[in-house]
Amino acid sequence: MAFACRTTFRSVENFIVEGSAEFSLTVKCIQYIYTGHYMFLTVNTNDQRSIYQQIADGIKELIARGELAEGTPLPPVRQLAADLGVNLNTIAIAYRELQKNGLITVKHGSGSVVASRTSAEREHGELLRPLRTALTELVLAGFSSGKILDIVTHELRTVTKGSTK
């Protein structure tokens, strides 16, 4: 199910979709115009992933697409937490995960910035592990090799859309 979020300067919009007594979904969308850079994040309360993981994944996607370039400052933890209506620690955990993966640099007192993509030196095998897991899940779900290749190609195009590399 896709949700369109109208966005304005530093806005948060909540969408509650109710189809039955069993189904309730809240999606929070936020677009930052932070120091001249756009950052669009979506938090879906019906997602199986934790909120911090959704935020970290959203920032990872923005970095992969080149929408958050090296040196781009990220919103302060307190500000992002308040704007998304989540706990401060949720954002701090997301930022720590991104820092652990070498995607951002956190300078206490002066904020977080996107790290150089080349500085994120991780083992080739470590990078392939989640891909293998996802491919295994698709095989176990009964997808053919051709269909899996189509899915991976489509997702790669989606992730790299707008990327300069």
Description:
There is one protein chain. With 165 residues, the chain is of the alpha+beta class. The chain has helices at 51-64, 77-84, 88-100, 124-140, 145-160; strands at residues 11-20, 23-34, 37-44, 104-107, 111-114. It has a domain at 129-165. It is 41% helix and 23% strand. The strands form two sheets. It has a three-stranded antiparallel beta sheet with strand order 1-2-3. It has a two-stranded antiparallel ribbon with strand order 4-5.
Extended strand count: 5
Overall pLDDT, averaged?
77
Q: Globular, elongated, flat, extended or rod-shaped: what is the shape?
A: globular
Cα-atom radius of gyration: 17 Å
Terminal CA distance reads: 30 Å
What does the largest sheet look like?
3 strands, antiparallel
**Distinct helical segment count:** 5
